[in-house]
Amino acid sequence: MDTITHIALGACVGEAIAGKQLGKKALLVGAFANTIPDFDFLSNLWLDTDDSLLAHRGFTHSFLFVTITTILMAFLFQRWYKKRNVSLNFWLWFFGIELFLHIFIDAFNAYGTGWFEPFSHYRVSFHTIFVADPFYSTWLLIAMFALALVKKDSVTRRSWARFGLGISTLYFMYCIVNKIKTDIDTNDILQRQHVAYKTYFTTPTPLNNWLWYIVAGNDSGFYIGYHSVFDSKKQIDLYYVPKNNLLLSPFFHREDVKHLVRFSKGFYTIENWNDTLVFNDLRFGQMVGWYDPKEKFVFHYFLQNKKDNRFVVQRGRFAKWDAAVIWSLIKRIEGN
Question: Can you give the pTM of this predicted structure?
Answer without folding.
Answer: 0.95
